[in-house]
C-alpha cells in the first residue's frame, strides 16, 4: 500500500479525471435512506452516507439477470453487462464483505457472471464514523487493509489516499497534480487523532470471540423458537446483507415455447421454499430452523471454514428487520448476557 | 451479448442424447444417455456416488445420482422417479431427444480409500440408483476389493429396482447377494422376506476394521441399518451414506443444499460418513 494525500476541494476534479476507468457509482440520499446510484452530478454524492440500503453486491451479482438465452436446440451464456464501473464510498465493513464475496465466487467453481463484472469494477473505499447500529469493531472489520483499489480517509480538510492496487495507482497517475505524495508527521498525528475519535464513537460493543462454541451448544436453545415466532420470513436481512450470495435459478420462455432465458435471482434462506425438494419434503420447514441456519452460518460455521465470521457488522439487517431481530442481541443472549431493551 | 468471461462457464449444460429408456418399476424409469460429442462422452470422468444436473430449457434443472459406473465409459445411466416439474418433463422425453446435462458434481465415494477393503453395499428403494454405480464399479475392479456383499431391500417384488440385474448376480461367486422384500404380494418371490435389517446378521465373516459399509435408502432406513452395522464394530468413519438435499446449482454457489451452517452438500457431499452425521448438525 502507498499513502498520499489530496485536498478535499480536489475531489470533484479527481473523480472527473478518473472517468476513463468507468461509470461512477456512489451513495446518494434517497428519502430517509442512502442508495448506491450512478453519479452524473457530483453534488449528489453524499460523503456522510453510512450504509446504503442495498450493498455493492447489487452491481456484481445483480438481483435478477439472464444467465443464458436459449432456443430449444442451443443455449448461449449471456454477458450483457460489459460496462466498466467505479464504485465509490465503500466503508471498511463493505470492503470486508467484498473480499468475502470475491473469495466465495472465486473458489471451487469460479463464477463467470460475478467475476466478469468484478474485473470491470474499480473500488474506492471511504472512511466513516459509526452510528448506533454499526458493530464492525465487534466483528473486527472496522479497518480494511485490502479489498480496494483506492481508499480515502476523510480528515476534515484533506483525504489520505491509500493506494491498494496497481489499478488504483493507474488512477492516481491520471491526475498527479491533484495529489501530494508527501504525508508528513502532522498528517500522521491527525490520522491518529481521527482514529481515536472513531474508536470512541462505537455505541455498542460486544465480544463475538468464541461464538462458534456458544453456537454449538445453542443448537436446542429455546431462543430459536422465540425468534421464529417473531420472524416474518420476509428475507430482508439476506437481501441487504453484503455477504449473502444465495440465488435461485429458473427459466422464462416465450408464449410459443421456442426460446427463453435462464434467470438467476437473489434468493433467501429465510424463504420457506428454499430447502424444499421435489415431492414437497422441506429440510427446514419452520422459521426457527431457518433463522438458526442464518445465524449458524454467519457466526459459527463460516468461522470454522475461514477463521472469521461472515458478518461484517454493517448494521443493515438491524436497520431493515421489520420485527427488530438484532444479530447483536441474538449473540449476547446466546452468551447469556443481559440485553438492554 | 458477448461471451467474454475467462472462466469456463460451470452452469453451461452439455448436450446429451437419450439413448434408451424403460420402466424399472411403476414410478421409476431407467434413462441411458450419451454426450452428443463422442469425445466428451468417452472422457467424462466421474466417481460412483457423484451426481449430474439435468437441464431442460424452459423447465429448469434438477440433480440426479449417476447409476452407471465410470469403468464402463461412454454411456451415463440414471434411475429417475417422477415427482416434480423437472422429472415430469424428463418423463415426456422420447428416445433420441437431446437435452442438457452438466456435472459430475459432489464428492462421490472415496474409492481410493476403499480399495483393499471388504465392501458391504446396503440399498433400499431408490437408494439402489447411486449404489448400483459403486456395485458395478467394484465388480469391474473385483481384484481391488476384498469380500463383496450386496443387501437390497424393496417394499414389494415389483418395486425392486434393477431386479433382473440382481437376480443374475445371485449366480456369481465373487459376490454375496441378499435380496429381500417387506412383503411378497406375488407369491412367487424366491428370496428373503422382511426388513433389510434382518439381513445384517448374515454378514458373519467380515473383518470390521477392514470393511466399508455404504448405505442409501429412505430416511427411516438409516437409523436401523446403522445401529445394526455398529454392532458389527465397523468404525463410524467407514460407514458411508449418500444424502439428498436441494442441490440446485451443483457448484457450491446457490446455497440451497447448505446444511449445518456452511456445508454445501453439492461440494462436500452427498456422500457423508456416519461420523460426519453425528458431528455435523442437521445432516439427518
Describe the structure.
The complex is a heterodimer of chains A (341) and B (284). Chain A has helices spanning 11-17, 57-60, 92-106, 112-119, 166-173, 185-199, 211-217, 223-230, 236-239, 287-306, 316-320, 327-334, and strands spanning 2-7, 23-30, 33-38, 64-71, 75-77, 85-90, 121-126, 150-155, 158-163, 179-180, 247-253, 259-266. Chain A has 341 residues and is α+β, with helices and mostly antiparallel strands. Chain A has 2 domains: 2-199, no CATH class; 211-334, no CATH class. In chain A, the strands form 2 sheets. In chain A, strands 3-2-6-7-8-9-1-10 form an 8-stranded mixed β-sheet. Chain A is globular. With 284 residues, chain B is α/β, with parallel strands linked by helices. Chain B has 3 domains: 14-105, Beta Barrel (Elongation Factor Tu (Ef-tu), domain 3); 111-242, Nucleotide-binding domain of ferredoxin-NADP reductase (FNR) module (Rossmann fold), CATH 3.40.50.80; 244-284, no CATH class. Helix content of chain B is 21%, strand content 29%. Chain B has 8 helices and 15 strands. Chain B has helices at residues 38-42, 85-91, 111-114, 128-140, 163-169, 219-231, 265-268, 274-279, and strands spanning 14-23, 28-35, 51-56, 60-65, 76-81, 98-105, 118-124, 148-154, 176-181, 192-193, 211-216, 239-242, 258-259, 263-264, 271-273. In chain B, the strands form 3 sheets. Chain B has a 7-stranded mixed β-sheet with strand order 10-9-8-7-11-12-15, sandwiched between helices. The longest helix of chain B is centred in the middle third of the chain and has 13 residues, at 128-140. The mean pLDDT of chain B is 93. Classes of the chains: A alpha+beta (341), B alpha/beta (284).
Amino acid at each position: 500500500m502507498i499513502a498520499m494525500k489530496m485536498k478535499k476541494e480536489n475531489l470533484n476534479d479527481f473523480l472527473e479525471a478518473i472517468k476513463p476507468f468507468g461509470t461512477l457509482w456512489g451513495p446518494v440520499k434517497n428519502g430517509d435512506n442512502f442508495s448506491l446510484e450512478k453519479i452524473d452530478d457530483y453534488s449528489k454524492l453524499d460523503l456522510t452516507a453510512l450504509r446504503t440500503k442495498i450493498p455493492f453486491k447489487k452491481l456484481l451479482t445483480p438481483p435478477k439477470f439472464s444467465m443464458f438465452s436459449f432456443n430449444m436446440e442451443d443455449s448461449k451464456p449471456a454477458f450483457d453487462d460489459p460496462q466498466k464501473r467505479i464504485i465509490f464510498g465503500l466503508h471498511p465493513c463493505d470492503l470486508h464483505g467484498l473480499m468475502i464475496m470475491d473469495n466465495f465466487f472465486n473458489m471451487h467453481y469460479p463464477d463467470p457472471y460475478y467475476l466478469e463484472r468484478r474485473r470491470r469494477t474499480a473500488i474506492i473505499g471511504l472512511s466513516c464514523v459509526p452510528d448506533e447500529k454499526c458493530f464492525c469493531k465487534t466483528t473486527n472489520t472496522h479497518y480494511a487493509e485490502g479489498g480496494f483499489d483506492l481508499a480515502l480517509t476523510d480528515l476534515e480538510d484533506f483525504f489520505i489516499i491509500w493506494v491498494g492496487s496497481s489499478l488504483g495507482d493507474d488512477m492516481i497517475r491520471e491526475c498527479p497534480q491533484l495529489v501530494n505524495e508527501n504525508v508528513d508527521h502532522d498528517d500522521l498525528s491527525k490520522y491518529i487523532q481521527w482514529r481515536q475519535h472513531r474508536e470512541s464513537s462505537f455505541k455498542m460493543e460486544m465480544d463475538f470471540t468464541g461464538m462458534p462454541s456458544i453456537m454449538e451448544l445453542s443448537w436446542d436453545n429455546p431462543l430459536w423458537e422465540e425468534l421464529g415466532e417473531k420472524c416474518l420470513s420476509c428475507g430482508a436481512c439476506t437481501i441487504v446483507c453484503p455477504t449473502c450470495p444465495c440465488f435461485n435459478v429458473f427459466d422464462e420462455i416465450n408464449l410459443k415455447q421456442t426460446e427463453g432465458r435462464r434467470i438467476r435471482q437473489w434468493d433467501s434462506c429465510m424463504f420457506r421454499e428454499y430447502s424444499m425438494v421435489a415431492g414437497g419434503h422441506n429440510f427446514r420447514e419452520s422459521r426457527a430452523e431457518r433463522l438458526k441456519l442464518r445465524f449458524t452460518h454467519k457466526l459459527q460455521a463460516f468461522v470454522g471454514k475461514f477463521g472469521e465470521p461472515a458478518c461484517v457488522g454493517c448494521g443493515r439487517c438491524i436497520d431493515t428487520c421489520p420485527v427488530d431481530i438484532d444479530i447483536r442481541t441474538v449473540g449476547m443472549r446466546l452468551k447469556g448476557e443481559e440485553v438492554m431493551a | 451479448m458477448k461471451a467474454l468471461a475467462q472462466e469456463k462457464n460451470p452452469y453451461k449444460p452439455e448436450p446429451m442424447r437419450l439413448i434408451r429408456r424403460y420402466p424399472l418399476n411403476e414410478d421409476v424409469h431407467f434413462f441411458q444417455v450419451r454426450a452428443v460429442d463422442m469425445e466428451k462422452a468417452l472422457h467424462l470422468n466421474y466417481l460412483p456416488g457423484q451426481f449430474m444436473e439435468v437441464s431442460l430449457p424452459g423447465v429448469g434443472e434438477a440433480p440426479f445420482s449417476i447409476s452407471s459406473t465410470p469403468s464402463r465409459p461412454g454411456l451415463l445411466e440414471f434411475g429417475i422417479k417422477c415427482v416434480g416439474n423437472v422429472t415430469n418433463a424428463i418423463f415426456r422425453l422420447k428416445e433420441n431427444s437431446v437435452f442438457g446435462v452438466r456435472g459430475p458434481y459432489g464428492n462421490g465415494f472415496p474409492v481410493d480409500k476403499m480399495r483393499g477393503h471388504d465392501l458391504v453395499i446396503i440399498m433400499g428403494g431408490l437408494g439402489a440408483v447411486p449404489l448400483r454405480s459403486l456395485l458395478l464399479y467394484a465388480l469391474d475392479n473385483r481384484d481391488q476389493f476384498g469380500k463383496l456383499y450386496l443387501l437390497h431391500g424393496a417394499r414389494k417384488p415389483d418395486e425392486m429396482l434393477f431386479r433382473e440385474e440382481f437376480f443374475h448376480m445371485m449366480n456369481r461367486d465373487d459376490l454375496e447377494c441378499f435380496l429381500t422384500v417387506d412383503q411378497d404380494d406375488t407369491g412367487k418371490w424366491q428370496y428373503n422376506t422382511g426388513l433389510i435389517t434382518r439381513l445384517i446378521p448374515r454378514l458373519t465373516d467380515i473383518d470390521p476394521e477392514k470393511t466399508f459399509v455404504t448405505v442409501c435408502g429412505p430416511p427411516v432406513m438409516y437409523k436401523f441399518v446403522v445401529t445394526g452395522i455398529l454392532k458389527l464394530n465397523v468404525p463410524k468413519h467407514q460407514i458411508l451414506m449418500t444424502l439428498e438435499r436441494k442441490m440446485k446449482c451443483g457448484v457450491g454457489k446457490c446455497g440451497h443444499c447448505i446444511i449445518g451452517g456452511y456445508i454445501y452438500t453439492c461440494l462436500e457431499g452427498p456422500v457423508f460418513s456416519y461420523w460426519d452425521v453425528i458431528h455435523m448438525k442437521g445432516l439427518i
